[in-house]
Design brief:
By secondary structure, the protein is of the alpha+beta class. The chain is built from three helices and three strands. The N and C termini lie far apart (32 Å). Pfam families: AP-5_subunit_s1 (PF15001). It comes from Cuculus canorus (Common cuckoo). This is AP-5 complex subunit sigma-1.
Length: 122
């Protein structure tokens, strides 16, 4: 992954570009909490870190792409992309997103039509 870089705080009204958001991959050794070595894909946006923990057999490119596609939806569900200063944690929305996009914790190839349909549902 890329070395961490300081991230300037963004106002919530400004659009968020995930292309330049710091992120990358790192590995965790076997032990607590995972019995085998795992790789973590991560991204940092608005002083929040989002991560996917991947089994050794997972497609890491797909994990990074999925994380970049999930992050704006999580930010929206947390009300971080909307106007105003209310940040509402809504775990039921996050659970619904994870259940839909990562059924049983499995990565799926996501296309734009599927994501647009998901956005309409939310």
């Amino acid at each position: 992954g890329r070395p961490p870089s300081p991230q300037l705080p963004q106002r919530l009204e400004e659009p968020i570009s995930l292309q330049d958001a710091p992120g990358g991959l790192f590995q965790l050794r076997p032990g607590d909490p995972f019995p085998e070595r795992v790789t973590v894909a991560w991204i940092s946006v608005l002083s929040l870190a989002f991560a996917l923990v991947c089994d050794p057999r997972e497609n890491l490119s797909l994990a990074e792409i999925t994380l970049r596609r999930l992050t704006p939806r999580f930010l929206a569900s947390l009300r971080l992309l909307g106007s105003g200063t209310d940040i509402l944690l809504r775990p039921e929305v996050a659970d619904r997103l994870l259940d839909r996009l990562l059924p049983h914790g499995r990565l799926l190839f996501l296309n734009e039509c599927f994501l647009q349909a998901l956005d309409r549902e939310m």
